[in-house]
Write a sequence for this structure.
């Protein structure tokens, strides 16, 4: 780098690998066959990719909202890391969904121009914590989300769809780290001060009704037997991890009934919480104001 | 805050020993060598550097807010990822800089207190609002561009930890500037509404960007001392001129007009002449009356205050488990 | 200066300062890259990985509490501690001196 001429210094460096991980300079799908696996219904595969992609997109959005609000600068960096990883996963999965449905849509049209009832994320991902500065809340949400997602992605690495398998393989490394981050904070808050213990316990208690939904099967999953992961298979591992973390944190694993959907329909079917409408109106506002624009 | 070590308990006499120390310090600077953390330095050198590095660190942290304002609304997922990564980089830069300030005996928590109590300043540019998504691009192009002009010479600053931090920061900033410019180029190739958005944003940010270099040399009383200590390598006006000269051709390539009727090439000086900066606005913003001063500091204070129980919990946990070992 | 207690805990820090050393690739030494704050060792490693390596896998990180480093520094001009080897008390706020005490 030249130190005397700022202009040269600007144009010189091109150490791309360093900048903005999660923005896709390294293609995790290079060398992967992206054609659809034989005998698979494209719409079903697309729906499944949207489920996993929307989970990541919406959870990432909730983490983005924490930006400039973290309790310490080091955690500012960590939360952004996790948000970026999930955003990267969302992009790959939405791109896969677009390809599977064969409609000519893109990751961006799927993110910005679908209406609320077309989003298939679990409701847990859309719970808001930043507006009440509830750090215990986001940690509880992240602990549950990443424990569940890690168990899911580990199994998805064996998917007959090579693209899903490759996305999962990349995601496993990332989400292992997310789970570890959330678990460490759960333990510190649970076993920290009396006050933090209460906050952490009530955060877990509050979101627990949304846990049941994570393990419910779905007709789309049932139609993709060797492609998708059956959610009910994840429960044992999930309970095991939560029990260990809560035990180390001197917390009690909550026991609360699952929150009902509407006529049995929940996030996976496009039936969300009231918070989702506000989330989407923020997320989609610029894109929808300029539908013809390129960014 | 106490910024220097107490006298030695070993019976030395500081008043008889500072002279050779001062000579050694001057010689180190003279020889273009770096000053390192445990070297003796004049108290004013230490205080000047702490103030400068802290303000620089605060600027990175406060600067996260105007850009962070658009992360959740970014109109494409790629832009969203780039912006989130950029704002994250700024948190990292703040940390590198606080780390450099700590090698001089400052304490990050103290510095944070000074920021949120309004005792220490940050770059005034962040007291302007971000009103459209084009601002994300224009901040990258103009604000980061101006920051680079200011910061690249600091990579040769006489204080080692600051200089080393700046090398890392400058490398990352150059990506920031390029992503901003690239966003603007894309928008200029888009719809009429997008082009208007870029021009309107440029109009708002141009003059505040020029103010980032600080008051004119005649009004900058500390410049001479900072230059003789090689904390600063160029005057405010020199850097401002450099920025204008490098930016005008970029604006032309982009197809936007810079909002200054007096801007024109001066063949004699081989530089661009430009119009008079509104220093009364600069002073108002500096005095705390900018559009967002109160909001920015209050936001930082709220995050810090609301995080107190979390930091305390981690400290309590660490204490418990240290005792248990 | 009988009230000076160099060994005392830094009262103002909620989280102590750690110095970070990174081996960026095999065949190289660990190099000091900077510092950070963390409540304990485990958190320090995590923060170091996030901040100084951006989670680049395969690099090795050491963290050590700044207060635990012992240094000798013949070339550094530090009249307060020379000539004996000493702790790296480069952070004078380790000494609890009231703000209103003028130049000591």
């Amino acid at each position: 780098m030249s130190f005397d001429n700022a202009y040269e210094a600007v144009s010189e460096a091109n150490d791309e690998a360093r900048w903005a991980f999660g923005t896709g300079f390294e293609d995790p799908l290079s060398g992967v066959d992206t054609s659809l696996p034989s005998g698979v219904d494209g719409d079903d595969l697309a729906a499944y990719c949207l489920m996993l992609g929307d989970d990541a997109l919406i959870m990432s959005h909730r983490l983005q909202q924490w930006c400039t609000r973290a309790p310490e600068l080091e955690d500012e960096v960590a939360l952004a890391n996790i948000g970026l990883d999930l955003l990267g996963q969302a992009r790959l999965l939405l791109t896969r969904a677009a390809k599977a449905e064969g409609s000519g849509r893109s990751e961006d049209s799927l993110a910005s121009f679908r209406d609320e009832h077309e989003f298939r994320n679990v409701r847990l991902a859309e719970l808001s914590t930043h507006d009440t500065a509830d750090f215990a809340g986001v940690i509880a949400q992240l602990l549950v989300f990443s424990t569940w997602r890690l168990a899911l992605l580990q199994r998805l690495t064996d998917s007959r769809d090579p693209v899903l398998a490759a996305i999962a393989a990349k995601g496993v490394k990332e989400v292992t780290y997310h789970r570890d981050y959330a678990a460490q904070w759960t333990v510190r808050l649970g076993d920290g001060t009396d006050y933090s213990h209460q906050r952490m316990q009530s955060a877990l208690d509050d979101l627990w009704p949304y846990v049941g939904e994570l393990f419910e099967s779905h007709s789309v999953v049932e139609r993709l037997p060797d492609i998708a992961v059956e959610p009910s298979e994840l429960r044992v591992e999930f309970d095991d991890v939560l029990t260990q973390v809560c035990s180390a944190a001197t917390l009690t694993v909550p026991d609360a009934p699952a929150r009902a959907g509407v006529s049995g329909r929940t996030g996976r079917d496009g039936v969300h919480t009231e918070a989702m409408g506000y989330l989407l109106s923020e997320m989609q506002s610029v894109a929808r104001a300029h539908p013809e624009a390129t960014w | 805050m106490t910024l220097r070590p107490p006298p030695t308990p070993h019976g030395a006499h500081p008043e008889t020993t500072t002279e050779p120390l001062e000579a050694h310090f001057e010689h180190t600077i003279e020889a273009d060598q770096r000053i390192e953390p445990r070297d003796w330095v004049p108290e004013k050198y230490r205080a000047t550097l702490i103030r400068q590095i802290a303000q620089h660190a605060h600027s990175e942290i406060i600067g996260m807010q105007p850009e962070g304002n658009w992360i959740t609304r970014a109109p494409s997922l790629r832009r969203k990822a780039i912006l989130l990564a950029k704002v994250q980089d700024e948190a990292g830069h703040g940390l590198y800089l606080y780390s450099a300030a700590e090698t001089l005996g400052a304490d990050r928590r103290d510095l944070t207190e000074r920021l949120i109590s309004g005792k220490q300043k940050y770059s005034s540019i962040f007291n302007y609002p971000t009103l459209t998504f084009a601002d994300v691009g224009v901040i990258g192009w103009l604000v980061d561009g101006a920051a680079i002009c200011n910061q690249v010479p600091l990579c040769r600053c006489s204080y080692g930890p600051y200089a080393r931090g700046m090398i890392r920061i400058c490398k990352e900033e150059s990506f920031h500037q390029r992503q901003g410019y690239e966003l603007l180029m894309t928008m200029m190739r888009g719809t009429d509404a997008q082009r208007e958005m870029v021009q309107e944003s440029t109009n708002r940010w141009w003059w505040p960007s020029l103010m980032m270099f600080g008051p004119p040399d005649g009004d900058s009383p500390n410049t001479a001392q900072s230059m003789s200590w090689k904390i600063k390598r160029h005057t405010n006006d020199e850097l401002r001129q450099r920025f204008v000269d490098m930016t005008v051709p970029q604006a032309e390539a982009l197809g936007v007009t810079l909002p200054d009727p007096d801007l024109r090439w001066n063949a004699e000086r081989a530089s661009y002449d430009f119009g008079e900066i509104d220093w009364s606005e600069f002073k108002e913003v500096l005095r705390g009356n900018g559009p967002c001063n109160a909001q920015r500091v209050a936001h930082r204070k709220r995050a810090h205050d609301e995080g107190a129980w979390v930091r305390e919990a981690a400290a309590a946990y660490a204490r418990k488990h240290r005792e248990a070992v | 200066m009988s009230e000076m207690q160099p060994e005392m805990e830094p009262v103002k820090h909620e989280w102590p300062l750690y110095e970070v050393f990174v081996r960026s690739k095999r065949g190289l030494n660990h190099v000091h890259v900077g510092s950070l704050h963390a409540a304990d060792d485990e958190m320090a490693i995590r923060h170091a990985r996030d901040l100084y390596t951006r989670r680049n896998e395969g690099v090795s990180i050491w963290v050590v509490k700044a207060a635990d480093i012992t240094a000798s520094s013949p070339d550094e001009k530090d009249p307060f501690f020379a000539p004996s080897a000493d702790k790296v008390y480069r952070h004078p706020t380790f000494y609890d001196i009231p703000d209103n005490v003028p130049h000591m």
